[in-house]
Design a protein that fits this description.
By secondary structure, this protein is mainly beta. Helix content is 6%, strand content 40%.
Protein backbone atom coordinates (compact mmCIF):
# COMPACT_ATOMS: atom_id res chain seq x y z
CA UNK A 1 0.00 0.00 0.00
CA UNK A 2 2.77 2.40 0.95
CA UNK A 3 4.58 1.66 -2.31
CA UNK A 4 1.37 2.33 -4.26
CA UNK A 5 0.78 5.66 -2.54
CA UNK A 6 4.38 6.74 -3.01
CA UNK A 7 4.23 5.94 -6.71
CA UNK A 8 1.02 7.92 -7.00
CA UNK A 9 2.63 10.81 -5.14
CA UNK A 10 5.71 10.85 -7.41
CA UNK A 11 3.67 10.67 -10.59
CA UNK A 12 1.54 13.50 -9.27
CA UNK A 13 4.60 15.66 -8.74
CA UNK A 14 5.53 15.24 -12.41
CA UNK A 15 2.01 16.19 -13.53
CA UNK A 16 1.93 19.13 -11.14
CA UNK A 17 5.14 20.57 -12.58
CA UNK A 18 3.35 21.25 -15.85
CA UNK A 19 -0.07 21.94 -14.39
CA UNK A 20 -2.34 24.46 -16.14
CA UNK A 21 -3.57 25.44 -12.67
CA UNK A 22 -1.70 27.99 -10.57
CA UNK A 23 -1.81 27.55 -6.81
CA UNK A 24 -1.56 30.35 -4.27
CA UNK A 25 -1.24 29.62 -0.56
CA UNK A 26 -3.56 31.96 1.37
CA UNK A 27 -2.69 30.38 4.71
CA UNK A 28 -0.74 27.19 5.34
CA UNK A 29 -0.14 25.93 8.88
CA UNK A 30 2.68 23.53 9.68
CA UNK A 31 2.66 21.81 13.06
CA UNK A 32 5.72 20.17 14.55
CA UNK A 33 3.74 17.10 15.59
CA UNK A 34 1.92 14.32 13.81
CA UNK A 35 -1.82 15.09 13.62
CA UNK A 36 -2.77 12.21 15.93
CA UNK A 37 -0.04 12.93 18.46
CA UNK A 38 -1.42 13.76 21.92
CA UNK A 39 1.03 16.66 22.10
CA UNK A 40 -0.21 18.14 18.81
CA UNK A 41 -0.33 21.92 18.75
CA UNK A 42 -1.28 24.24 15.90
CA UNK A 43 1.30 26.38 14.19
CA UNK A 44 1.69 29.97 15.29
CA UNK A 45 -1.16 32.20 14.18
CA UNK A 46 -4.66 31.27 13.08
CA UNK A 47 -5.39 27.52 13.22
CA UNK A 48 -7.46 27.36 10.05
CA UNK A 49 -8.69 23.76 10.25
CA UNK A 50 -11.26 24.35 7.51
CA UNK A 51 -14.52 22.42 7.88
CA UNK A 52 -16.89 24.52 5.76
CA UNK A 53 -16.72 27.14 3.00
CA UNK A 54 -19.06 29.52 1.23
CA UNK A 55 -18.99 32.73 -0.79
CA UNK A 56 -20.46 36.01 0.46
CA UNK A 57 -22.58 38.17 -1.91
CA UNK A 58 -19.55 40.39 -2.67
CA UNK A 59 -17.47 37.34 -3.65
CA UNK A 60 -15.34 37.14 -0.51
CA UNK A 61 -14.85 33.57 0.71
CA UNK A 62 -15.94 32.72 4.23
CA UNK A 63 -14.66 29.68 6.14
CA UNK A 64 -15.69 27.89 9.29
CA UNK A 65 -13.22 25.86 11.31
CA UNK A 66 -13.49 22.71 13.37
CA UNK A 67 -13.39 24.45 16.75
CA UNK A 68 -16.43 26.59 16.02
CA UNK A 69 -15.37 29.94 14.51
CA UNK A 70 -16.27 31.54 11.18
CA UNK A 71 -13.85 33.89 9.39
CA UNK A 72 -14.36 36.35 6.54
CA UNK A 73 -11.41 36.32 4.12
CA UNK A 74 -10.50 39.75 2.73
CA UNK A 75 -8.13 40.20 -0.21
CA UNK A 76 -8.36 36.57 -1.31
CA UNK A 77 -8.20 37.47 -5.01
CA UNK A 78 -5.18 39.77 -4.90
CA UNK A 79 -1.45 39.18 -4.89
CA UNK A 80 -0.93 40.22 -1.27
CA UNK A 81 -1.61 38.04 1.72
CA UNK A 82 -5.29 38.04 2.68
CA UNK A 83 -6.63 38.98 6.08
CA UNK A 84 -8.97 36.91 8.22
CA UNK A 85 -11.73 38.56 10.24
CA UNK A 86 -13.63 36.76 12.98
CA UNK A 87 -17.31 36.79 11.98
CA UNK A 88 -18.96 34.27 14.33
CA UNK A 89 -17.99 31.93 17.15
CA UNK A 90 -19.32 29.39 19.62
CA UNK A 91 -20.50 26.76 17.13
CA UNK A 92 -20.33 23.05 17.90
CA UNK A 93 -18.18 21.32 15.31
CA UNK A 94 -19.54 23.01 12.15
CA UNK A 95 -18.99 20.74 9.13
CA UNK A 96 -20.63 22.59 6.28
CA UNK A 97 -21.92 26.00 5.28
CA UNK A 98 -23.78 27.79 2.48
CA UNK A 99 -24.76 31.42 1.92
CA UNK A 100 -28.24 32.51 0.85
CA UNK A 101 -29.42 36.14 0.57
CA UNK A 102 -26.54 37.28 2.76
CA UNK A 103 -27.23 34.84 5.60
CA UNK A 104 -24.99 31.89 6.44
CA UNK A 105 -26.53 28.49 7.09
CA UNK A 106 -24.17 26.29 9.07
CA UNK A 107 -24.62 22.64 10.00
CA UNK A 108 -23.37 21.93 13.47
CA UNK A 109 -23.86 18.85 15.65
CA UNK A 110 -27.48 19.33 16.61
CA UNK A 111 -28.94 21.74 14.06
CA UNK A 112 -28.64 23.93 11.01
CA UNK A 113 -28.11 27.47 12.28
CA UNK A 114 -28.92 30.66 10.38
CA UNK A 115 -26.33 33.33 11.10
CA UNK A 116 -26.63 36.96 10.04
CA UNK A 117 -25.07 40.37 10.55
CA UNK A 118 -28.08 42.62 11.19
CA UNK A 119 -26.28 45.94 11.73
CA UNK A 120 -23.71 45.53 8.94
CA UNK A 121 -20.58 45.88 11.08
CA UNK A 122 -18.96 42.70 9.77
CA UNK A 123 -19.70 40.64 12.88
CA UNK A 124 -22.61 38.23 13.24
CA UNK A 125 -25.18 39.26 15.82
CA UNK A 126 -28.02 36.81 15.16
CA UNK A 127 -27.88 33.04 15.65
CA UNK A 128 -31.17 31.20 15.12
CA UNK A 129 -32.02 27.56 14.65
CA UNK A 130 -33.18 26.90 11.10
CA UNK A 131 -33.65 23.15 11.36
CA UNK A 132 -33.10 20.27 13.78
CA UNK A 133 -34.67 17.01 14.87
CA UNK A 134 -32.07 14.30 14.52
CA UNK A 135 -30.75 12.20 17.35
CA UNK A 136 -27.56 12.63 19.36
CA UNK A 137 -26.13 10.28 21.97
CA UNK A 138 -22.80 11.95 22.67
CA UNK A 139 -20.86 9.49 20.52
CA UNK A 140 -17.91 11.33 19.01
CA UNK A 141 -18.63 9.94 15.51
CA UNK A 142 -22.12 11.49 15.19
CA UNK A 143 -21.15 14.19 12.70
CA UNK A 144 -23.68 16.21 10.72
CA UNK A 145 -22.91 17.54 7.22
CA UNK A 146 -24.37 20.06 4.83
CA UNK A 147 -26.42 21.91 4.06
CA UNK A 148 -26.80 21.74 0.30
CA UNK A 149 -29.68 23.47 -1.45
CA UNK A 150 -31.55 21.60 -4.16
CA UNK A 151 -33.41 23.03 -7.14
CA UNK A 152 -36.60 23.39 -5.08
CA UNK A 153 -34.89 25.54 -2.43
CA UNK A 154 -34.74 22.76 0.18
CA UNK A 155 -31.68 22.39 2.38
CA UNK A 156 -30.35 18.83 2.63
CA UNK A 157 -28.37 17.42 5.54
CA UNK A 158 -26.60 14.07 5.96
CA UNK A 159 -25.84 12.34 9.27
CA UNK A 160 -22.90 10.16 10.29
CA UNK A 161 -23.42 6.87 12.08
CA UNK A 162 -21.91 6.43 15.53
CA UNK A 163 -18.71 4.47 16.04
CA UNK A 164 -18.29 1.46 18.29
CA UNK A 165 -20.39 -1.51 19.38
CA UNK A 166 -24.11 -0.76 19.64
CA UNK A 167 -23.55 2.96 19.14
CA UNK A 168 -26.17 3.76 16.50
CA UNK A 169 -29.38 2.48 18.20
CA UNK A 170 -29.03 5.19 20.83
CA UNK A 171 -29.61 8.01 18.37
CA UNK A 172 -32.24 8.33 15.64
CA UNK A 173 -31.59 8.93 11.97
CA UNK A 174 -27.87 8.19 12.05
CA UNK A 175 -26.76 7.24 8.52
CA UNK A 176 -29.72 9.09 6.96
CA UNK A 177 -30.08 12.03 4.64
CA UNK A 178 -32.97 14.41 4.30
CA UNK A 179 -34.00 18.03 4.05
CA UNK A 180 -35.26 20.70 6.43
CA UNK A 181 -39.01 21.31 6.28
CA UNK A 182 -40.66 23.84 8.59
CA UNK A 183 -37.70 23.72 10.92
CA UNK A 184 -37.57 19.92 11.21
CA UNK A 185 -35.37 17.26 9.68
CA UNK A 186 -37.37 15.18 7.20
CA UNK A 187 -35.59 11.85 6.57
CA UNK A 188 -35.61 10.72 2.95
CA UNK A 189 -32.91 8.08 2.40
CA UNK A 190 -30.70 5.80 4.47
CA UNK A 191 -27.78 3.41 4.43
CA UNK A 192 -24.89 5.86 4.66
CA UNK A 193 -21.76 5.52 6.78
CA UNK A 194 -19.91 8.83 6.81
CA UNK A 195 -21.58 11.06 4.19
CA UNK A 196 -19.06 13.84 4.54
CA UNK A 197 -19.99 16.27 1.76
CA UNK A 198 -22.91 17.12 -0.47
CA UNK A 199 -23.78 19.51 -3.30
CA UNK A 200 -26.32 19.94 -6.08
CA UNK A 201 -25.61 19.51 -9.79
CA UNK A 202 -26.71 21.92 -12.51
CA UNK A 203 -30.21 20.36 -12.48
CA UNK A 204 -30.57 21.01 -8.75
CA UNK A 205 -30.34 17.35 -7.72
CA UNK A 206 -28.28 16.65 -4.61
CA UNK A 207 -25.31 14.28 -4.50
CA UNK A 208 -23.32 13.08 -1.53
CA UNK A 209 -19.95 11.37 -1.03
CA UNK A 210 -19.24 8.68 1.54
CA UNK A 211 -16.28 6.72 2.93
CA UNK A 212 -15.02 3.24 2.20
CA UNK A 213 -15.48 0.98 5.26
CA UNK A 214 -17.82 -1.75 6.45
CA UNK A 215 -20.49 -2.47 3.82
CA UNK A 216 -18.57 -0.28 1.35
CA UNK A 217 -15.58 -1.74 -0.45
CA UNK A 218 -14.96 1.57 -2.23
CA UNK A 219 -15.97 5.16 -1.56
CA UNK A 220 -19.27 6.05 -3.27
CA UNK A 221 -21.07 9.08 -4.70
CA UNK A 222 -24.84 8.89 -4.13
CA UNK A 223 -27.77 10.62 -5.71
CA UNK A 224 -29.96 11.54 -2.72
CA UNK A 225 -33.64 10.86 -3.30
CA UNK A 226 -36.63 9.55 -1.40
CA UNK A 227 -36.61 5.87 -0.55
CA UNK A 228 -33.02 5.07 -1.42
CA UNK A 229 -31.11 2.63 0.78
CA UNK A 230 -27.37 2.63 0.07
CA UNK A 231 -26.41 -0.41 2.08
CA UNK A 232 -25.07 0.47 5.53
CA UNK A 233 -27.12 -1.58 8.01
CA UNK A 234 -26.57 0.55 11.11
CA UNK A 235 -28.83 3.24 9.69
CA UNK A 236 -31.76 0.84 10.19
CA UNK A 237 -31.47 0.96 14.00
CA UNK A 238 -33.83 2.96 16.21
CA UNK A 239 -36.46 5.07 14.49
CA UNK A 240 -34.98 4.24 11.13
CA UNK A 241 -36.21 0.65 11.44
CA UNK A 242 -39.81 1.86 11.85
CA UNK A 243 -39.71 4.10 8.80
CA UNK A 244 -37.72 1.84 6.49
CA UNK A 245 -40.58 -0.51 5.45
CA UNK A 246 -42.61 2.53 4.36
CA UNK A 247 -39.85 3.47 1.92
CA UNK A 248 -38.45 1.42 -0.94
CA UNK A 249 -36.12 -0.78 1.09
CA UNK A 250 -37.00 -3.53 3.55
CA UNK A 251 -34.49 -4.29 6.33
CA UNK A 252 -36.04 -7.69 6.99
CA UNK A 253 -34.90 -8.85 3.56
CA UNK A 254 -31.45 -7.29 3.83
CA UNK A 255 -29.51 -9.94 5.77
CA UNK A 256 -27.01 -11.09 3.16
CA UNK A 257 -23.35 -10.59 4.07
CA UNK A 258 -20.07 -11.31 2.28
CA UNK A 259 -21.35 -11.58 -1.30
CA UNK A 260 -20.29 -9.74 -4.48
CA UNK A 261 -21.92 -6.33 -4.66
CA UNK A 262 -23.82 -6.94 -7.94
CA UNK A 263 -25.33 -10.07 -6.38
CA UNK A 264 -26.36 -8.06 -3.31
CA UNK A 265 -28.20 -5.52 -5.48
CA UNK A 266 -30.07 -8.32 -7.28
CA UNK A 267 -31.02 -10.19 -4.10
CA UNK A 268 -31.82 -7.29 -1.76
CA UNK A 269 -34.97 -5.35 -2.66
CA UNK A 270 -34.39 -1.64 -2.44
CA UNK A 271 -30.58 -1.64 -2.29
CA UNK A 272 -29.64 1.42 -4.34
CA UNK A 273 -26.28 1.42 -6.11
CA UNK A 274 -24.31 4.67 -6.02
CA UNK A 275 -23.95 6.75 -9.15
CA UNK A 276 -20.17 6.35 -9.01
CA UNK A 277 -17.72 4.14 -7.15
CA UNK A 278 -14.21 5.50 -6.47
CA UNK A 279 -11.73 2.58 -6.64
CA UNK A 280 -9.75 2.44 -3.42
CA UNK A 281 -6.29 4.10 -3.59
CA UNK A 282 -6.44 4.36 -7.39
CA UNK A 283 -8.67 7.41 -7.00
CA UNK A 284 -9.50 7.93 -3.34
CA UNK A 285 -9.45 6.42 0.13
CA UNK A 286 -11.63 8.90 2.04
CA UNK A 287 -13.91 11.35 0.21
CA UNK A 288 -14.72 14.57 2.03
CA UNK A 289 -16.38 17.38 0.10
CA UNK A 290 -18.09 17.89 -3.24
CA UNK A 291 -18.71 21.04 -5.25
CA UNK A 292 -20.12 21.89 -8.66
CA UNK A 293 -18.14 23.64 -11.37
CA UNK A 294 -20.71 26.30 -12.26
CA UNK A 295 -18.08 28.71 -13.61
CA UNK A 296 -19.09 28.33 -17.27
CA UNK A 297 -15.57 27.38 -18.33
CA UNK A 298 -13.56 29.81 -16.20
CA UNK A 299 -11.95 26.87 -14.40
CA UNK A 300 -11.01 24.96 -17.52
CA UNK A 301 -12.76 22.37 -19.69
CA UNK A 302 -14.82 20.69 -16.94
CA UNK A 303 -17.83 22.99 -16.61
CA UNK A 304 -20.87 21.25 -15.13
CA UNK A 305 -18.84 18.45 -13.53
CA UNK A 306 -18.48 17.74 -9.82
CA UNK A 307 -15.18 18.08 -7.99
CA UNK A 308 -14.58 15.86 -4.96
CA UNK A 309 -12.05 16.32 -2.18
CA UNK A 310 -9.96 13.41 -0.89
CA UNK A 311 -8.38 13.20 2.56
CA UNK A 312 -5.62 10.60 2.71
CA UNK A 313 -4.04 11.30 -0.66
CA UNK A 314 -4.47 15.10 -0.29
CA UNK A 315 -6.02 15.27 -3.71
CA UNK A 316 -9.04 16.31 -5.77
CA UNK A 317 -11.01 14.10 -8.12
CA UNK A 318 -13.70 15.03 -10.62
CA UNK A 319 -16.87 13.30 -11.76
CA UNK A 320 -18.74 13.18 -15.04
CA UNK A 321 -22.38 12.09 -14.72
CA UNK A 322 -24.99 11.03 -17.24
CA UNK A 323 -28.48 9.54 -16.99
CA UNK A 324 -29.10 6.05 -18.34
CA UNK A 325 -32.58 4.61 -17.95
CA UNK A 326 -33.56 7.60 -15.81
CA UNK A 327 -30.80 7.01 -13.23
CA UNK A 328 -27.40 8.64 -12.78
CA UNK A 329 -24.14 6.83 -13.43
CA UNK A 330 -20.78 7.99 -14.65
CA UNK A 331 -17.03 8.15 -14.37
CA UNK A 332 -14.52 9.51 -11.92
CA UNK A 333 -11.05 10.80 -12.73
CA UNK A 334 -8.07 12.00 -10.77
CA UNK A 335 -7.72 15.77 -11.16
CA UNK A 336 -5.02 17.15 -8.89
CA UNK A 337 -2.63 15.58 -6.43
CA UNK A 338 0.04 16.67 -3.94
CA UNK A 339 -1.92 19.42 -2.24
CA UNK A 340 -0.39 20.77 0.99
CA UNK A 341 -2.89 19.01 3.28
CA UNK A 342 -5.96 16.81 3.27
CA UNK A 343 -8.75 18.38 1.22
CA UNK A 344 -12.00 18.88 3.15
CA UNK A 345 -13.98 21.65 1.45
CA UNK A 346 -13.98 23.57 -1.83
CA UNK A 347 -15.90 26.53 -3.21
CA UNK A 348 -15.63 28.43 -6.49
CA UNK A 349 -14.87 32.14 -6.30
CA UNK A 350 -16.41 35.03 -8.24
CA UNK A 351 -13.64 34.84 -10.86
CA UNK A 352 -13.94 31.09 -11.42
CA UNK A 353 -10.98 30.13 -9.25
CA UNK A 354 -11.34 27.40 -6.66
CA UNK A 355 -10.73 27.93 -2.96
CA UNK A 356 -9.58 24.74 -1.24
CA UNK A 357 -9.89 24.31 2.54
CA UNK A 358 -7.66 21.70 4.17
CA UNK A 359 -6.93 19.99 7.49
CA UNK A 360 -5.03 16.87 8.55
CA UNK A 361 -6.61 16.89 11.99
CA UNK A 362 -7.75 13.48 13.25
CA UNK A 363 -6.18 11.47 10.44
CA UNK A 364 -3.02 11.66 8.42
CA UNK A 365 -2.56 12.40 4.73
CA UNK A 366 0.21 12.63 2.18
CA UNK A 367 0.05 16.39 2.65
CA UNK A 368 2.77 17.78 4.88
CA UNK A 369 0.88 20.81 6.22
CA UNK A 370 -1.51 20.55 9.15
CA UNK A 371 -4.21 22.78 7.66
CA UNK A 372 -4.71 25.70 5.35
CA UNK A 373 -6.46 27.52 2.55
CA UNK A 374 -5.34 27.57 -1.05
CA UNK A 375 -6.60 29.19 -4.24
CA UNK A 376 -6.40 27.32 -7.54
CA UNK A 377 -6.70 29.31 -10.77
CA UNK A 378 -6.79 28.06 -14.35
CA UNK A 379 -4.02 29.84 -16.25
CA UNK A 380 -5.59 29.26 -19.68
CA UNK A 381 -3.35 26.36 -20.72
CA UNK A 382 -5.49 23.47 -21.93
CA UNK A 383 -4.61 20.20 -20.17
CA UNK A 384 -4.71 17.02 -22.22
CA UNK A 385 -7.27 14.95 -20.31
CA UNK A 386 -10.17 12.58 -20.75
CA UNK A 387 -12.96 15.12 -20.39
CA UNK A 388 -15.90 12.68 -20.45
CA UNK A 389 -16.49 8.95 -20.52
CA UNK A 390 -19.97 7.90 -21.65
CA UNK A 391 -21.61 4.48 -21.80
CA UNK A 392 -22.84 2.91 -25.05
CA UNK A 393 -24.73 -0.31 -25.75
CA UNK A 394 -21.53 -1.94 -26.97
CA UNK A 395 -18.82 -0.01 -25.14
CA UNK A 396 -17.87 3.54 -24.24
CA UNK A 397 -17.37 6.95 -25.81
CA UNK A 398 -14.45 9.13 -24.76
CA UNK A 399 -14.31 12.89 -25.14
CA UNK A 400 -10.84 14.47 -24.90
CA UNK A 401 -9.93 18.06 -24.16
CA UNK A 402 -7.62 18.16 -27.20
CA UNK A 403 -7.65 16.48 -30.62
CA UNK A 404 -6.22 12.97 -30.57
CA UNK A 405 -3.75 11.64 -33.13
CA UNK A 406 -5.66 9.22 -35.37
CA UNK A 407 -2.97 6.54 -35.43
CA UNK A 408 -3.04 6.30 -31.62
CA UNK A 409 -6.85 6.55 -31.39
CA UNK A 410 -7.45 3.69 -33.82
CA UNK A 411 -4.80 1.43 -32.31
CA UNK A 412 -6.47 -1.14 -30.03
CA UNK A 413 -3.24 -1.37 -28.06
CA UNK A 414 -3.69 2.23 -26.91
CA UNK A 415 -6.39 1.08 -24.49
CA UNK A 416 -6.82 -1.58 -21.86
CA UNK A 417 -10.15 -2.15 -20.12
CA UNK A 418 -10.70 -4.12 -16.93
CA UNK A 419 -13.86 -4.56 -14.87
CA UNK A 420 -14.20 -5.56 -11.22
CA UNK A 421 -16.38 -5.22 -8.16
CA UNK A 422 -16.05 -5.69 -4.38
CA UNK A 423 -17.73 -7.62 -1.58
CA UNK A 424 -20.82 -6.32 0.17
CA UNK A 425 -19.87 -7.27 3.71
CA UNK A 426 -19.93 -6.20 7.35
CA UNK A 427 -16.12 -6.49 7.49
CA UNK A 428 -14.18 -3.29 6.82
CA UNK A 429 -13.52 -2.60 3.14
CA UNK A 430 -12.92 -5.14 0.39
CA UNK A 431 -10.35 -5.99 -2.24
CA UNK A 432 -11.28 -5.84 -5.91
CA UNK A 433 -12.86 -9.15 -6.90
CA UNK A 434 -14.19 -10.87 -10.03
CA UNK A 435 -11.73 -9.06 -12.28
CA UNK A 436 -12.11 -9.44 -16.02
CA UNK A 437 -10.04 -8.10 -18.93
CA UNK A 438 -12.06 -7.00 -21.94
CA UNK A 439 -11.19 -6.94 -25.62
CA UNK A 440 -11.39 -3.47 -27.15
CA UNK A 441 -11.88 -2.24 -30.68
CA UNK A 442 -11.75 1.45 -31.70
CA UNK A 443 -14.76 2.20 -33.92
CA UNK A 444 -14.65 5.86 -34.90
CA UNK A 445 -12.96 9.19 -34.27
CA UNK A 446 -14.86 12.43 -34.81
CA UNK A 447 -13.70 14.96 -37.40
CA UNK A 448 -12.38 17.29 -34.71
CA UNK A 449 -10.38 14.42 -33.21
CA UNK A 450 -11.89 14.77 -29.74
CA UNK A 451 -14.61 12.09 -29.63
CA UNK A 452 -13.61 8.43 -29.79
CA UNK A 453 -15.98 5.44 -29.64
CA UNK A 454 -14.60 2.20 -28.29
CA UNK A 455 -16.25 -1.22 -28.57
CA UNK A 456 -15.76 -3.27 -25.40
CA UNK A 457 -16.58 -6.96 -25.18
CA UNK A 458 -18.71 -8.61 -22.48
CA UNK A 459 -20.15 -5.55 -20.77
CA UNK A 460 -21.70 -6.36 -17.38
CA UNK A 461 -23.90 -4.22 -15.19
CA UNK A 462 -23.08 -3.07 -11.65
CA UNK A 463 -19.32 -3.32 -12.24
CA UNK A 464 -16.62 -0.66 -12.34
CA UNK A 465 -14.90 -0.42 -15.73
CA UNK A 466 -11.33 0.83 -15.52
CA UNK A 467 -10.09 2.20 -18.83
CA UNK A 468 -6.38 2.94 -19.27
CA UNK A 469 -5.45 5.04 -22.29
CA UNK A 470 -1.67 4.93 -21.95
CA UNK A 471 -1.18 4.77 -25.72
CA UNK A 472 -3.26 7.83 -26.57
CA UNK A 473 -1.39 10.87 -27.89
CA UNK A 474 -2.61 14.31 -28.84
CA UNK A 475 -1.95 15.64 -32.33
CA UNK A 476 1.01 17.45 -30.75
CA UNK A 477 2.40 14.23 -29.29
CA UNK A 478 1.31 14.85 -25.69
CA UNK A 479 0.55 12.10 -23.21
CA UNK A 480 -2.61 12.30 -21.11
CA UNK A 481 -2.05 13.92 -17.72
CA UNK A 482 -4.33 11.28 -16.21
CA UNK A 483 -4.77 8.35 -18.60
CA UNK A 484 -7.13 6.38 -16.33
CA UNK A 485 -10.92 6.62 -16.15
CA UNK A 486 -13.28 4.64 -13.90
CA UNK A 487 -16.87 4.20 -15.07
CA UNK A 488 -19.58 2.69 -12.83
CA UNK A 489 -21.83 0.80 -15.25
CA UNK A 490 -25.04 0.35 -13.29
CA UNK A 491 -27.06 -0.04 -16.48
CA UNK A 492 -26.07 -0.75 -20.09
CA UNK A 493 -27.85 1.71 -22.42
CA UNK A 494 -30.43 0.27 -24.76
CA UNK A 495 -29.65 0.26 -28.46
Amino acid sequence: MVRCLCALFLSALCAWATSPYDAKDLLIGASQQYSRDKSWKPANGLALEVSGMALMPNGDPVVCVRKGEIYLVKGAYGNDKPTFHLYARGLHEPLGMIQSEGDLYVTQRAEVTRIRDRNGDGIADSYRSFGSGWGLSGNYHEYAFGPAMDGKGRMWVTLNIGMGKNSSPWADWRGWGGFIEEGKFKPMCAGMRSPAGLAANLDGEVFCVDHQGNWFGMSPLYHLKKGSFFGHRESLAGTGRKLAPKLLFNPEKSKLDGIPYPEAVRKMPGLTPPAVWFPYEKTARGLTGVTLDDTGGKFGPFAGQLFVGEFTQASICRVFLEKVGGEYQGACFRFMESLPSAVLRMVFGKDGSMFVGMSNRGWSSLGTASYGLQRLRWNGKMPFEIQEMRSRPDGFEFVFTKPVARNSAMDENSFSVTSYTHLYQSRYGSKEIDQRHHAVQPLSLSKDGRRLTLKVSDLRELYVFEARANGIRSTNGELLVHPDAYYTLNRIPEK
